[in-house]
Amino acid sequence: MAPASTPHEGHEGHEGHEGHEGHLGHQVQEGLYSPNLHRPGLAKCRHHASSEQTPFFELTMLNASSKQQGLRPKAVVIGAGFGGLASAIRLSVKGYDVEVLEKLDAAGGRAYVHHQDGFTFDAGPTIITAPFLLEELWALCGKRMADEIDLIKMSPFYRIRFYNGETFDYSDDTEAMCREIAKFDANDIAGYHRLMQAADQCKRLGFEEMGDVAFDSYKDLLKALPSFVKMRAWKSLYSLVAENIRHPLLRVAFSFHPLLIGGNPYSVTRAYALIHSLEKTWGVHSPMGGTGALVKGLVGLLAHLKVPIRYNTAVKRICIEDGKACGVALEPPEWTPGVDSSKRHNAEGERIDADIVVCNTDSAWTYKHLIAPEHRKHWSDARIDRGRYSMGLFVWYFGTNRTYPDVPHHMMVLAERYKTLLHDIFKKHHLSEDFSLYLHRPTATDPSLAPAGCDTFYVLAPVPNLDSRTDWPAISESFRQSIQDHLEATVLENLGQHIITSKVTTPLDFQNRLYSFKGAGFGLEPLLTQSAIFRPHNRSEDIQGLYMVGASTHPGAGVPGVLMSAKALEKVIPCA
Ligand SMILES: Cc1cc2nc3c(=O)[nH]c(=O)nc-3n(C[C@H](O)[C@H](O)[C@H](O)COP(=O)(O)OP(=O)(O)OC[C@H]3O[C@@H](n4cnc5c(N)ncnc54)[C@H](O)[C@@H]3O)c2cc1C
């Protein structure tokens, strides 16, 4: 198991024990920190790696007293997704005076919660693994996540329903998995064990060793090269599965996972086999109250740290002086969220000065739209346009006036086509008539997410991103209807008669609501050539004092990925 770094562990670059005053840098020293002279990496860290650390309550008190002195350097975090919330917590604990700016009216980003007609819909992430990454954040604030969040372990994790009606219940129970495999071909059991060994190796090398490395120098890459070689990371995940598993449907069951983080199993590096191991080691969980309960919990931690979050506050421009980020300019008060965000106008609203700016926003969008081209030598428009972006998502949220007790919490309803369907989505950017679906029924675990006797659902179809030029406003309803028909014919009997609330999200919403470049569901596609050092760095390649966190930085999308990116960020942030 990855040593979840406890609050008692130190940080890279820390210089040994210096007593409570210097602990985590909360007591900012005159002369040690000067906002104007501050340079990333130049400030002397006064953190330490000793096990004799200041207890958390003292840490919080130090925070408060430093704040009163008004000495703490200011960090603005743009965006309140999981990455922004986690980094705001880490920065505050590290000694920064943090302010979070969020364009939407609530936190969560892709994990926003829609409330409609008495139903509660988690907009995005639902499969929660590696909960220790969340527990760390509570621990940093001197709290226990278990006191606030009731995390339920899924068993099985999810049901995969193939086009022919056969099903596979995927779990962490090895015997049960062997029984499921034997339903298709018992000869594949040995291959499953080999695959899991490879997955464990990928988790060790790719997640535990590299997950929170900031990868902002070739030294980091050189250090990681032997691990890439051991994992044969240049080969695809699908090829690893196919080397070990022969039955075509089992190959699908063991290779679809990267789709959950925006990767095509045929292109994504086989290092992503780590997902199997991650889920087996730490389980798949769902909190009571849905994923929104986790977001609410993190917002509560920020309140505890006295970190303000300003909602309905969109950053229009990152202010740069002498090559250094020095704050942000907001959209003017008359700005209306949701209007075509690509239409730029000149008016600006309030300006907020800061010593560092941390972007939890999509990196492509940020560089292209929030930073003037003259400040971007590395992330030029041409480089951004050349990037390959993950698929889009069509998500239909609906509530029914009856329950479907036979439908599990998580279900994959797969199409007959696999490779060619993925090719249509990722390579040809063509919206096909058929689709594979992920069906989410959170009321299987927590009935309080719907009115009594009702069920809450969302169904998600991977679709091409906006490179497809699909006219979503024109075809959205017919696409939704065909999904409804398919669900009705397969797993949700008479669905049409029971829908009482409905809402859809298309790639266009990902662009206009979340400022996601090309409406991609998961930011940059997780290709080897867009990973680690080749992914936008946590410490901007172009601008001093500018930092990135979240799905479009290393290690990538998914809740564990963005929480790890906040840890990587913490390593390159100057000491406060
Ligand atoms: C439908 C769906 C299902 C998913 N399922 C899973 C799953 O089951 N398990 C899993 O681990 N992962 C899943 N993921 C992936 C996971 O949700 C994301 O990778 C992760 O939540 C991204 O977090 P983030 O912090 O990087 O960014 P985001 O959540 O995108 O947050 C970015 C925030 O920045 C704000 N913002 C953008 N521009 C500005 C601006 N100019 N000014 C102010 N604010 C701005 C946005 O409004 C947003 O709130 C899913 C994603 C989706 C969309």
Overview of the molecule:
This protein is of the alpha/beta class and 576 residues long. The protein has 3 domains: 221 residues, FAD/NAD(P)-binding domain, CATH 3.50.50; 113 residues, no CATH class; 131 residues, Guanine Nucleotide Dissociation Inhibitor, domain 2 (2-Layer Sandwich). Helices cover 34% and strands 16% of the residues. The chain contains 19 helices and 19 strands. Helix 3 runs parallel beside helix 12 and helix 7 crosses helix 11. The N terminus is likely disordered. Bound molecules: flavin-adenine dinucleotide. The site of flavin-adenine dinucleotide has 36 residues, from helix 3, strand 14 and helix 19. The site of flavin-adenine dinucleotide (FAD) has 36 residues, from helix 3, strand 14 and helix 19.
Characteristic terms for this protein:
globular, Guanine Nucleotide Dissociation Inhibitor, domain 2, 3 domains, binds flavin-adenine dinucleotide, alpha/beta, single chain, disordered N terminus, 576 residues, FAD/NAD(P)-binding domain, 7-stranded mixed sheet, 5-stranded parallel sheet
Short synopsis of the structure:
The chain is 34% helix and 16% strand. It is an alpha/beta fold and 576 residues long. Mean pLDDT is 87; it is low at 1-68.
